[in-house]
Amino acid sequence: MKRPSRGSWWSAGSWPWTICAKPRRAPRGEEKLDKVRLPVDQGRLEVLRRALELAERDYAMRRQELQTKQGIKQGEVEAIRIELANLELERQQAIIRAPIDGMVTTGT
Q1: What is the pTM of this model?
Q2: Would you state the pLDDT for residue 27?
Q3: pLDDT tens for each residue of 40-71
Q4: Between 10 and which of 6, 46, 66, 68 could a Cys-Cys bridge form, CB atoms 3.0 to 4.6 Å apart?
Q5: C-alpha angle 52-46-60 in degrees, rounded to nearest 5
Q6: How far apart are CA 36 and CA 45, in angstroms?
Q7: Secondary structure class of 65 (helix, strand, coil)
């Protein structure tokens, strides 16, 4: 069975939405490509490179400071743990145990 004719606009290459469409400008991609092809300002690039180097050095210095502080804090924590263990031992040794008869005498 043959399809009925849809008129002259149905012929190849002329679709209904292309007949009514406005003519378009060149795609923006070409404009962006032209902009990318422009030479880069070398002065600004050098400033950004130096800023990056400075940021890297600043980061390394700050990281070293934090590692030093962390080492100091870990040393303090270890010293406090040792002190706590000594205090617990001292407390255990200071406990007075009463003899079975309940009489505590002092040696004077």
Answers
A1: 0.45
A2: 64
A3: 677 888 899 999 999 999 999 999 999 999 99
A4: 6
A5: 20
A6: 15
A7: helix
- Can you tell me the distance from the alpha carbon of 61 to that of 69, in angstroms, rounded to the nearest whole number? 12
> Token pair for residue 92?
């255990």
The CA dihedral of 41, 43, 46, 50, to the nearest 10 degrees, is -130
Nearest to 86, CA basis, from 78, 96, 98: 78
Cβ-proximal residues to 19 (8 Å cutoff; 6+ apart), any chain: 9
Asked whether the predicted pLDDT for residue 8 surpasses 90, the reply is no
**Could you tell me if 53 and 46 are in contact, meaning their C-beta atoms sit under 8 angstroms apart?**
no
Terminal Cα distance for the chain, rounded? 130
CB 104 within 8 A of CB 96: yes
> Which two three-digit tokens encode residue 35?
């902009």
Q: For residue 66, give the amino acid letter.
A: L
